[in-house]
Amino acid sequence: MKTSPPGSAVNAESGxxxxxxxxxLIGTAGHIDHGKxxxxxxxxxxxxxxxxxxxxxxxxxxxxxxxxxxAPFRFGIVDVPGHERFVRQMVAxxxxxxxxxxxxxxxxxxxxxxxxxxxxxxxxxxxxxxxxITRCDLIDSEMRELVAEEVRExxxxxxxxxAPIVSVSGLxxxxxxxxxxxxxxxxxxxxxxxxxxxxxxxxxxxxTLAGRGTIVTGxxxxxxxxxxxxxxxxxxxxxxxxxxxxxxxxxxxxxxxxRRAAINLAxxxxxxxxxxxxxxxxxxxxxxxxxxxEIECLAIVKRPLRHRQILTLHAxxxxxxxxxxxxxxxxxxxxxxxxxxxxxxxxVLSWGQxxxxxxxxxxxxxxxxxxxxxxxxxxxxxxxxxxxxAGTSQPEIRIASLLEQQPSISGxxxxxxxxxxxx
Length: 423
Known about the structure:
Structural class: alpha+beta
Mean pLDDT: 87
Radius of gyration: 21 Å
Strand content: 35-45%
Helix content: 10-25%
Number of strands: 25
Distance between the termini: 17 Å
Number of helices: 9
Oligomer: single chain
């Protein structure tokens, strides 16, 4: 695929390369009606509630997208619904973000979806974030301190334990400039994913425009995509051509990781694609109905996870029913274990990819990370040994473990199963 130097972009009109702001993705999280969409409007000037029902009811139902620039960064924002009925959309929006903004209303404090959204962010492996207390114009300084203390206590066992706390008002604009500067400070610590060679984009919207045909949007997870490239539509494993690429409404020749992208596809109808499909470098990923993973049962759930229990697995922008196969009969709240996961439908899950597990009662009960995305169909005699080797952070041990199981492994399979380049 065509590439340009880091920190650069290619103009679709002239073909010239120019210096650009570094792109990063922000995701909101928090309880319903705590001011997430109003906060996004204050930061960007865009109302992300675009659906008629959202405007009528005054709540977010689907994902919303906006952006704003604060040199040297261009921030794309994914605004997620806060209602418990729309957690699936929340997971889809949070899956690829670089920075999380946990929003808590100052006149309400910590609420149920504050806790659930923070659990989801933690399970997804998000590393960077900010806590924002909204509606600060409705509370005095003493109440601000009490709410900050409450949120800090909630966040103490998570990645937000040392996160900055900023108080803002959507009504007056107080604190918005401070929030922008704080975002820049946090953004400077985020590592660059655009250097990874394999392109991957989970699709979150599909639509058509007259004269252009099928367009999909999503957040580029890794690698890059350019006009004229051939990409693979997954899990269908169908190759399609990129007719054009846009980034926040502007035509570009290429879009890299950390960017929102709208991709015009040739030779495929809107009816053949849906949220949950992916675009990727051809020939790299294989859909599977079985993966090996390390899973965690949330400490706050009332019941342990059971061997052979059926749950819903959320990964990227999709979800699928899954049956747990554990080495023990139960996985107690707060504990971790390796598991053999059997998926109802084929899905692409690569090494290290994070996912969320929810029960039939629409409760987030846990999550985990993939340690082998293509384990095959053979019975695993010693799941602990197999997963311990496959799940280590040391590439040499992962390679040795895989060769022990399958000496004739191909390079393409190894990429998905090891999380390494073919080289």
